[in-house]
Design goal:
This protein is mainly beta and about 140 residues long. The chain has one domain (about 1-145): Sandwich (Jelly Rolls). Helices cover about 15% and strands about 40% of the residues. It has a 5-stranded antiparallel beta sheet with strand order 1-2-11-4-9, covered by helices on one side. β1 (about 45-50) and β2 form a beta hairpin. The protein is globular. It starts with a helix and ends with a strand.
């Protein structure tokens, strides 16, 4: 996890974060452990960390597409399957430049585990899929296109 944490510390200052921020592996693990996803709602809880966010997900998310932002994601704990590419049938705009939907059609999948670093280019549909009882904690940084 030291490489993943160092990567975030190097990338965040390039995209508008103020001052030096150091998030030790122990700090990040402790924060991730305290996040409690609301299983009755969307099954996800997050904490902003400057220009990055720390997330813990306890159930599959919606399919999403960011028109103007690239996601840089580092898996900290747990596992999930990333479904990406293809199209979002019946996708709808939720906010400016953001599209959501229930699923992805004709996408590819990849199993994710701790230490994995994922770059999802702007305009690429993506979705986290979790099996019942599975959780994943990850850091996400939104980068301009």
């Amino acid at each position: 996890m030291k490489v993943a944490s160092a990567l975030l510390l190097c990338v965040c200052p390039l995209f508008g974060a103020g001052g030096v921020e150091v998030w030790s592996a122990a700090d990040l693990k402790s924060t991730a452990d305290r996040l409690a996803p609301d299983a009755e709602a969307k099954g996800i809880a997050g904490k902003p960390l400057g220009t990055a966010s720390l997330w813990r997900r306890a159930k599959s998310g919606e399919a999403e597409l960011h028109k103007t932002k690239t996601d840089l994601i580092v898996i900290e704990q747990g596992s999930a399957t990333l479904l990406y590419g293809g199209t979002i049938p019946d996708g709808h705009t939720t906010t400016a430049n953001e599209i959501r939907g229930k699923s992805i059609r004709n996408g590819e999948s990849r199993k994710l585990s701790p230490g994995d670093i994922i770059r999802i280019p702007a305009g690429t549909p993506h979705q986290f899929l979790l099996e019942k009882g599975q959780q994943v904690a990850y850091y996400a940084v939104k980068l301009p296109r």
